[in-house]
Amino acid sequence: MKELNLQEIQQACFSTFLKLDEICRKLNIHYYMAFGTLIGAIRHKGFIPWDDDIDVMMLRKDYEILKTYMESHQEELKPFKICTRSNTKNYSPSIPRFVDTSYIFESSYSYEKKFDLGAFVDIYILDYCGNTFEHGKKFGKKIRNWDKKYMIYLNPDNGKRNLKFFVRCLLYIILKILWGKNYDFDSKLIKYNSRFHNEKDNYVGVLYDCDPIEKNLFINPPEVDFEGHKVYIPNNYDSVLTLTHKGYMNLPPESERIPHHNYKIYK
């Protein structure tokens, strides 16, 4: 196996993204460049030079269309697939990933259980979360606390041998008793959220991760250049980035211009 350097990881992730882009355009659904990838699109017209992954956002209804298509065309789409906590053994991240399985992923965290992945694109799902920012933020906090417990349910080991580790192990035992052996947090979240929110809401959000965003920022997305390819972004990217990365047009200190993810990719 050959370990990829940073530039090669970017190339592998970008080629994986191009396949995702191709499928989304075929299905007439939208993704939106997000977080550091959106900053790269606006500030660098491509990757932030030291970034090592690609992030996109996608409305839940579009993600479900994509997921259904991927599942019904598994053979013809190989080596591409979507990895989730429900279809990939030991996979713990709350976000699904669009993956090229011709590459091999290896976490740098020794305590993390091994799972099959590859070069990937992170997909952050946008769910409806209410008519006010305050309600969406409060609801998201509740979901994140729930997800933290689920992460302990999946693996109590966080690599630190201290008092909190023993508390996590105790909580792990309690959750296994309360939730059983095959607790499916993600499907329960969808059902739970549908009890309170729907497409009439004014706000959407990545319930696992960030504050709510106005729904109308994801209508009629424009396209910008990213590594010489046209990609979709929110129609008011400044509002989105100001919410998640204030001062995003300013370069960080040189000491911070390094990859922030702990993994290796092999070909």
- CA distance, first residue to last residue: 6 Å
Oligomer: single chain
Secondary structure category: alpha+beta
Secondary-structure element series? HEHEHHEEEEHHHEEEEHE
Number of DSSP helical runs: 8
The overall strand count is: 11
Rg, Å, rounded: 19 Å
Domain tally: 1
Shape: globular
Measured as a percent range, the helix fraction is: 25-40%
Compute the average pLDDT.
Answer: 94
> What profile does the largest beta sheet have?
7 strands, mixed
Poorly predicted ranges: none
Proportion of residues in β-strands? 15-25%
Give a written overview of the molecule.
The termini are close together. Helix 5 (133-154) packs across helix 6. The protein has one domain (6-266). It is built from eight helices and eleven strands. It has helices spanning 6-27, 35-43, 60-72, 74-77, 133-154, 163-179, 185-194, 237-244, and strands spanning 32-33, 55-59, 80-83, 97-100, 104-107, 119-128, 203-205, 213-214, 223-226, 229-232, 263-266. The relative contact order is 0.19. With 267 residues, it is α+β, with helices and mostly antiparallel strands.
